[in-house]
Amino acid sequence: MRLLTLLLFLPLFLFADVKVSSFAHQDTRNQPKVGSAPYFKGLILVGNKGDLSPGGYEEVHGIMTYHVDLPGNIVNLKRSVRTYYNHPLNGETIAAIKNRVIEYYGNAGRPVVAISVPEQDVTDGVLQLIVTEGKLGKVTCTGNKWFSEKRLLEGIQLEPGQSISANLLDQNLYWLNRNPYRQIDAVYTPGSLDGTTDIELICKDRLPLRVYGGIDNTGNDVTGNNRLFT
Q1: Model confidence, pTM
Q2: Which of 85, 128, 169, 219 is an S-S bond match for 225, by CB 3.0 to 4.6 Å?
């Protein structure tokens, strides 16, 4: 069984929009410097632009979320990101942190996600990222000749408007492919509505019919010892 994934929400490396303010008017006695970049100390994940604080945050250490349906255990994300604490918060570090968040979502079975960097003030070492998950638009089926589309679609338990669980989709495909007369793969495609992702089931099937035949000598004197059967 193969799961073909078309990643619709590609990470946007918008580092040019991140503004690093002057350090002339802040207390930097406890904050080391490398060039003009502050040191990373906190991460805030938000679900939309309305949750952003353009002026930045000061008293944030670790990870915080606002209106984000974070899958899995946030402890795993904290472990993944903490390696960048006290690193200069420059473009390279931001790219690495974004990749860690994307990997976290993928490992948690939610691979359709976009992470973007909005315009913000990171003077105090706190980075804000916007998390946009693709929601399921619709599920369609192509290539099926011997099995009805309705029956195949009933085997997919994902609901439109919900986040796409790759783990659940894998389970559904496993059960559909237990039938020896068909092979079904899934492909993510752009949805017709903004923020949605469609799933296309690609089916290769054949006539669900088997013919068996044989011969033995277990007959009797009346009908004959040799027997043909199908």
Answers
A1: 0.72
A2: 219
